[in-house]
Amino acid sequence: MKELSLHILDIAENSVNAGASKVEITVLENINKDILTITIKDNGKGMDAETVKRVTDPFITSRTTRKVGLGLPFLKAAAEACQGSLSIHSQLGVGTQIEVNFQRSHIDRMPLGDLQTTFLNLLIGYPQVHWIFNYQVDEKSFTLDDQPIKEILADVALSDPSVINYLKKVISEGVSNINQDNN
Amino acid sequence: MNAIKSLDDLKNVRDAALAKRKISENSGSTQVIVGMGTCGIAAGARETMKSVLDYIEANNIENVVVTQTGCIGLCEQEPIMQVVLSGKEKVTYGKVNPDVAKKIMKEHVGSGNLVQDHVITL
After folding, report:
1. In a mutagenesis test of the A interface, which of B7, B36, B105 is the best target, namely the one with the most A β-carbons within 10 Å?
2. What is the residue-wise DSSP string for A60-111?
3. Hey, what domains does chain B have and what are their CATH numbers?
4. Which of A112, A182, B47, B61 has the CA that lies 20 to 30 A from A104?
């Protein structure tokens, strides 16, 4: 994968598969400290300590225990190639939090990429999930909690043409206000 | 964008959508599902989904519900897109790049004709 935003889409997919009804995604860029952090926190079914140890190793993961796939090992390798790390905190029945750090200026760090489209796809593609998106660069931040939006829309679909238009506008204005050519 | 103003905008959007729905009284809705597992994403599924949403927005297509799903075990055929017209069987398409997605939206969702070259027989 060529963008961090594609990894975010992929990890969020794990959360949905784990039965999460609420997923919070945070992208935090600290320019002075030269760190880029992505956090994905869900209230899905969680994993026991044994499974947590396994999910980042593609060679140990057993297909019969849990469908995890290659997403996390890819992301972990990408972070470690950039002086970063990936950590998983998970508790059975409570949820999972994945945190991944990169040295922001590292030459091998993937670009953040099209965060707008990742957010838009998740929001529309999984309407049953309560999504919270945060994007922060130093002091500037954008937060989108989809709860008020869904309350107003009631039974109007998120993929109604005028709603797509609205969501696109809100998300791209929000993200581009924060992300001015620092990608 | 000011958050409160933006939610007021959304109320207008909702009211307009509801008014339109009353006029059209369309029977049933079409479902479009895009595979978004690791395999799908690596093959470009995010852009496929974006293409579907852009098409709906640009052509003002009502009554289509677009959702995502995980890996369905046909990784070599990704990006995968499925279409369910109201009352019809689910049709699965493989190797759906953004252009193919637009074609499926136009011909299958729009006119009810399958895009044969990309249909996967399950």
Report:
1. B36
2. T--TTT----SHHHHHHHHHHTTT-EEEEEEETTTEEEEEEEEETT-TTPPP
3. 26-120 (3.40.30.10)
4. B47
